[in-house]
Hints:
Helices cover 75% and strands 0% of the residues. The chain is mainly α. Helix 5 (87-98) runs parallel beside helix 7. It starts with a helix and ends with a helix. The mean pLDDT is 86.
Amino acid sequence: SAYMINKIRPGVAAAGELQEAMIDVKMNLMESGKNAADLNKELAEVRRTAVDVSKVAPFGAKEVVDIENVFLKAGLKIQDVVGKRGAAYAATALATLSKELPETIAESMVMMSTPFNVKGSQFGELADFIQRVDAASATTIPELMEGMKYLSGTAAAMKLSWQDTLKLQGLVAQSGLRGSMGGTSLNAFLIRLTGGTRGVKHMLLKINAMLEGRGAKPLEFFDKQGKLKTIPAIIDNMRQAMKKLTDQEKMVVMQRVFGDEGARAAIALIKEGDASWESFGQSVERAADITKKMDERLKGLNANIKALAGTSKTTLAALFDPLLAPLAKVLSMQRRCR
């Protein structure tokens, strides 16, 4: 009857959504030569992780499966995706703290981590570091990840660590360069560190002659072996070079060396005191880890209501899953009879 159909519809819908998500995973896990037993074992592990994670987060199993699928499509091994220490749990925790869609967070994590060749087992560390930088900075997790889209490729090519790159993004946010603005400014800064065009290199020689004439150290971004200096060393070198200059002169020099875009990042990076690279790094280290913050987040009433809703939807999906095959068979027969 229509009454009964309306009664079971929420459960069937929840089960259908989870089944659809699992089909997407199955298609990603299917490989030539893989036997059915191994495939079913992997699918069971994906589903088990989704159910377990949904118990401690304000999302249902379907949303967690979507996260797992993002990482599997990106090429992560299944053992690095599933489980309490897997990438799916890390992304779910970050989504919980940022209040962003889980799948969006997972996609952003993949995009920013791929240039750095972050391994699956490192995604927990990555998620924790992202939220620590967020806690230390005047920015948000989505803004940090947005900025990294513009910055990761160049930073990785220059052999910077993803930790230092995230700290750069968080530090310039303290000067108002948030999100894509911070990412593009830092990207321009890093590109010009290499010397840029012949004209820029010639300009740097002139600027260094002027700095030395003022009794300041020259701008030198490479060591004697021709290797790019570390970020702390580069920042210290810029500070020493700028010490004898007025604020206006600093801006002029930075614009000539790094261009208008890169100069904004350079000026932000040479700040000292509470706004310095060193002080910011200490704040990142002092920030609470992601597990503690997850526990704290889930103490609130709203978070518990959302978590309960996610758990309830997951339970409905499990209860009504056995009905999906018979229902699909009936609908298929009806379609053929038309």
